[in-house]
Amino acid sequence: MKLNSFAKLSGVALLSALVLAGCGSKSSSTGTKKQTLNWMVPSSISTMDTSKMTDLYSSQVANATNEGLLRMGNSKVTPGVAKSYKISNGGKTWTFNLRHSKWNDGKPVTAEDFVFAWQRTVSPKTASQYAYIFGNVKNATQISAGKMSPSKLGVKADGNYKLVVTLNKPQSFFKYMVAQGYYFPQEKSIVQKYGSNYATNATKNGYNGPFILKGWNGTNDTFKLVKNPKYWDAKKVKLSTVNFQTIKDPSTALNSYQSNKLDFTTLNGTQVKQYKNNKDYHDYLEASSFYLEMNEKKDPMFKNKNIRRALSLAIDKKQFVDKVLADGSIAPKGYVPAKMSSHNGKDFADQAYVKDAVEYNLAQAKKYWAKGLKETGKKSVSLTLLSDDTDGSKKNTEFIQSQLTKLPGLKITNQNVPFKTRLSRSQNGQFDLVITAWIADYPDPSNFLDLFTSTNSQNNGKWKNAQYDALIKKSESTDANNETARWNDMVQAEKILMNDQGIVPLFQQAQSTLMQSKVKGVQFFPTSPQWAWDRASIK
């Protein structure tokens, strides 16, 4: 899932997908007391259309207001709209038995709502950047390529409350995927009613989750979630309201927290030093990767491997995390984050580690740079560095700028724009260099590695490598049922990406936060970062 670069006010995104369903223990109840949680985010949401959203903040609200077949927390899945499921046909057929749940307007949530939503997402007319994630559902790839009707997608409704999914090949982590926003149902009548305006504001949508979105007009920075009385497990949802504020400046956010206007805030590096021993302080290492993409289509010079190597070696990642971020974030070992995936007791990041792809060596960087300039026929280069417009993002792009301009003849101009604008420009290839990030949707290396296949819509820099593509394809086909072979395919693929310096990894984010002690039950799941408010209550 796309992150807001440095959105955490110190240098990163705050939240991943929010799992807000299935709340508390069986004995818990909402009671008569109105419970309100005041929460901040560093950037406003961009869309509520689950077929089109790619960013963190839209996803967090979608996970609060809607629910898929299953829901996930701490790398485990629990029942959602589906009360049970079974796997058959050698792992290629998944049958989900749905409970009798409702949309917020009282209409039933049926299997057909899932069929409609999935077909809409893979349809070329929708132009979803997440269509590729359905690639293992039968016929999805052909449909996305415009070679087959969406009606041929391998998903069907067997009556109102049974959904049957046919996969091309077994996929053990499919259970995690159906818990994500891109696999959520959509209320067909609402989508058809609003057409191109569907989900562009709070009222033009249908909600089947614990909360209903209120007060979002499509662009504003304040909105709220209110308890959905039609949610199937509403009796266990303790919060009546979650108030959101978009606050980009860390000092403003901290002041609001100190004056009890916020129950939660993130901290930048300077603030971490001050509050690290505070009883309300918490930090978590996310399954995230922040990296620099180089636009090979717009700037052919980036096709030169020596140029790419030079940029990576010129950035001191250790200094970046220790002196600039200073919030517990760690220097990267590669692209796939550490402590997320393991096989036979070995961490993926350790096995795929390519030291000279992430180390700092300015002298060597200058040699590669000089060689690359000669090979591309250039004496000097001027580039723009695209990132977000938060206070922390501006400071951190200044650091990257100062590092890269140590390369002779290189001029970097920082371009800090609103999160939504940065996403749009990245997707449209309107950048030279862009700081972007990905946070785990599910705890498998493929969630990251798939992005850099040559045809993936998230591959904004257009790096290509035929051997990389072949290994990813092999891991998803020939070796799909051989866990060790599949793992080795992915390790080799990451090493190719790093040795070829297809991207420049910058850091793996740690969240540093303050949360009021009166707030109880909010959980964070680091291995697949999610905030679960469903258990939350105010003391």
Give a verbal description of the structure.
It is a single chain. The protein has 16 helices and 24 strands. By secondary structure, it is an alpha+beta fold. The strands form 8 sheets. The protein has a 5-stranded mixed β-sheet. Strands 1-10-9-8 form a 4-stranded mixed β-sheet, covered by helices on one side. β2 and β3 form a beta hairpin. α8 runs antiparallel to α11 and α15 packs antiparallel against α16. The chain is globular, with a radius of gyration of 23 Å. The two termini are 33 Å apart.
Give a brief rundown of this model.
With 539 residues, this protein is of the alpha+beta class.
Task: Give the arrangement of secondary structure elements.
Layout (H helix, E strand, L loop, with lengths): L35 E6 L14 H10 L4 E4 L2 E4 L2 E7 L4 E6 L12 H12 L17 H5 L10 E3 L4 E5 L7 H4 L10 H7 L16 E4 L7 E6 L13 E6 L3 H9 L5 E3 L2 H7 L5 E5 L2 E7 L10 H9 L3 H9 L16 E2 L2 E2 H4 L10 H15 L4 E8 L2 H14 L5 E8 L1 H9 L5 E7 L6 H4 L16 H11 L6 H17 L4 E4 L2 E6 L3 E2 L2 E2 L6 E2 L4 E2 L1
Parallel strand pairs: 1-10, 16-17, 16-18
Antiparallel strand pairs: 2-3, 4-5, 5-7, 6-7, 8-9, 9-10, 11-20, 12-20, 13-18, 13-19, 14-15, 21-24, 22-23
Helix pairs in contact: 8-11, 15-16
